[in-house]
Amino acid sequence: MNNYFDHSNSLKSKFCEIYRCDFSFISHILKDFHYKSDQIGGGISQCFAMYYMGGLVGGSVLGLPRHNNKYSGGIDIRRMACIDDSPKNSESWFLGSIIRWIKTNTDYKFVLSYSDKTVNHQGVIYKAANFKQNGETSPTKYVIWDGKTYHPRSLSIDRDYSYKLREAVRKGEATINTGLPKKIWIYEIPKKGRNKKYFVKKIEDMNQLQLL
Asked: What is the mean pLDDT of the chain?
């Protein structure tokens, strides 16, 4: 398995693979390469792993939108990240493959995602993938604790790390900050092509890859 990829080289799609997987399979990718780390404050509907030349280079998490009344019928890309050494355009290929799977394997009407201007994410890959910007959120709130960024919802959910986070805020060890708005991106899923299934295998562990 390759552990290094030359980021200066363009992606060769023939070496790309996508798999469905459990969250534990990709959590370390999000922890190391996503600015919000691997703490997911809401439910998880589906996870994906991206491989390139036999090496794990990306992970993504889908879930129902937090504001489900406003975005009923859609699915939210809650997290998506690729390692720093992945080839150029890796995230674009990964995003396109996820959309293709959603389009042909679910009944969702649209895909929702956000780009956080606080960390200078402008949504370039969403625009390139034919997402349309649908306004912006209010200025975002976020919690910083022990070098990690958390959504404010993490302060109210029933998880072990949430109890610790609330205690850290109380003691002044964690801070609640106000950032910039996020851009809201929506990809409307066309009806055409829904009957053309895009099959994505699910992997349970690393050893299974040797059999695929």
From this structure: 89
Give the three-state DSSP class for 55: strand
Residue holding tokens 């019928």? 73
Full DSSP string of 101-149: HHHHH---SEEEEEEEGGGT---HHHHHTT-EEEEE-SSPEEEEETTEE
CA distance to 57, 98, 135, per residue, from 122 (Å): 22, 20, 13
Higher pLDDT, 50 or 198: 50
* The one-letter amino acid at 158: D
Does residue 162 lie in a domain region? yes
pTM of the model: 0.83
Straight-line distance from the first to the last Cα atom of the chain, in angstroms, rounded to the nearest whole number = 14
Q: Which CATH number covers residue 124?
A: 3.40.630.30
Question: Is residue 152 located within the same domain as residue 127?
Answer: no
